[in-house]
Design goal:
73% helix
């Protein structure tokens, strides 16, 4: 029986695209000051600058998620490794964020969960020498 989660570039792409969009949206919100953070959270952000936090969010989370989304959407051989990296980066970003601002929000839990799911699915889809690559399988 075929494993429904193995070799799942479309699923990875479907997970990465919304996270990339959310990262850019969050970044814009932080840069424009639309996203409201608690005073204590802002005080704990490096330089207490939400615009810099927004730029960092776009670069650190948005860009890798976009790359992973494009590569998995096009069934690139680099899709799974890109998604793996983007998932690990997202998990690390959220964990560091929780440590720095010392607050936990449901969005952080959701993003952390999504990052773990992407990482696990990408690992399952990683190119291995014992099976043909996605390009030769299609």
């Amino acid at each position: 029986m075929k494993d429904p989660l193995a070799r799942s570039p479309r699923l990875l792409s479907a997970l990465c695209w919304p996270l990339a969009v959310l990262a850019y949206g969050g970044a814009v919100g932080l840069i424009l000051g639309v996203v409201e953070l608690s005073v204590s959270a802002v005080d704990r952000i490096p330089a207490s600058n939400t615009a810099l936090a927004g730029i960092a969010l776009a670069i650190v989370v948005g860009v890798p998620m976009t790359i992973a989304a494009v590569r998995t959407q096009h069934s690139s051989v680099n899709g799974a490794p890109s998604a793996f990296a983007a998932g690990v980066i997202l998990v690390a970003w959220i964990l560091v964020q929780m440590i720095i601002i010392r607050e936990v929000d449901y969005l952080q839990i959701a993003a952390l969960t999504a990052g773990v799911v992407i990482t696990v699915l990408a690992l399952r889809d990683f190119p291995r020498p014992d099976r043909p690559s996605r390009q030769s399988a299609t």
